[in-house]
Write a structure and sequence with these properties.
Layout (H helix, E strand, L loop, with lengths): L4 E2 L2 E2 L2 H4 L11 H7 L9 E5 L3 E7 L8 E6 L2 E8 L6 E2 L2 E2 L8 E8 L10 E5 L2 E7 L17
Antiparallel strand pairs: 1-2, 3-4, 4-11, 5-6, 6-9, 7-8, 10-11
Amino acid sequence: MLYPTLFNDSIFDDLMNFQFPKFPDFDEVDRKLYGKHAPHVMKTDVHDKEDHFEVYIDLPGFKKDEIQLQLENGYLTVSASKNLEEDDKTEKGKIIRQERYVGSMQRSFYVGKNVTEEDVKAKFEDGVLKLNVPKKEAIKIPEKKIISIEG
C-alpha cells in the first residue's frame, strides 16, 4: 500500500514516532550520555576466521589512551571514556550546541577462560579498535575411572 508523502517524508512518521509520556528522568540517563543515537554507540563487527576471531569496534572521537581492555573470568571488556568539559566556554569560544559524544561506555564479550591477556592482540587506528582473539579449546579433563570393589 502506498502512503502519501509530503516533501519526500511520510506524513505518518510523526504519528508513528509519537512518544508517550514517561516517568520524569526515567530512560533519560542513556539519552544524556549518548544522545539520540544511543543504540548506535560502539558498533561492532565480529569475523570468524579459521583459528581466531577478528573484532572491529567503532570508537570515533576517542584516543588510544581513553580506551581500556580487561580480561576477567573469560570475559573481554572494552571500556572507553571521554571526559566531560564542565565549562560552557573553551579556548575555541563559547559552546552553543554540543553533539559530540562525551562520557563513558563499555561492552563485554565472552572469549573463554583459556584465553590470556597475552593471547589478545589489539590495534587502534582511524577510530576503529581491531582485536585479534585466538580460538582456544577448553582443557579436557580426563574421565574418572571407576574402580570396582570385590567382595
